[in-house]
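Hello,

Our lab assistant flagged a job as stuck in the queue for most of the afternoon. It eventually completed. Since we weren't sure the result was trustworthy after the delay, we are filing this so someone can double-check. Below is the sequence as submitted and the structure that was eventually returned. Let us know if re-running is recommended.
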Amino acid sequence: MPLLELRDVRAGYGDAVVLDGISLEVPEQGSLAVLGRNGAGKSTLLLTLMGFTRLKRGRIFFKGRDVSALAPHRRAQLGIAWVAQEREIFPSLSAEENLTVAAHPGPWNLERVFRLFPRLAERRANMGNQLSGGEQQMLAIARALMTNPGLLLLDEPFEGLAPVIVDELAGALERLDGMALILVEQHTELALSLTEDAVVLERGAIVHRARSGEFAHDAPTLERLVGLKIA
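-- returned structure --
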């Protein structure tokens, strides 16, 4: 049984349809890159998994349970954690308070997230709005880990960050274990290096599926579908 399964999902906002006919599976501790050009529906896919869009058709199963009608907070309680593109940390709480307010019992605790992100340990007393953009992204990911999820959803975690911070975050993601990962990312080569499988969305539909390692070397398909040219 897969950890996550989508069956013919059609979803959007109000009367508008953004995703149409999405079917996919993610196994326990699996990792999936969701690629595509701007406006393809990548972020909407994550929002649909969390329950923030209008599901018009299809079913979503998590740990074998139909969660299609569950509210976002119920999905989070079941073990789906989402790191939004806007990060959405609490600016008036300290870094440590941002983490402890989200904590659930499990292997991820303050000590472990501080080992993963030493910068946060150094700034644990700083308010959220006193952190740099890269530190805020680290905090957003660390806060999601403190919920001890079975599935981690990351929406453009490297957007707008300096290369040195991107490298630091990527290294941290490579060290994650004990959970599945879905990564929406415009840095195609990096996304493929961090995941086992990949799908490409186009106009809200999956137009390509591949193993990430194989896809990374498929220059013609990468250029055609996501506009990436490999030297």
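-- support follow-up --
The delay was a queue issue, not a problem with the job. The result is valid. The CA atoms of residues 37 and 226 lie 6 Å apart. The two ends are 40 Å apart (CA to CA).
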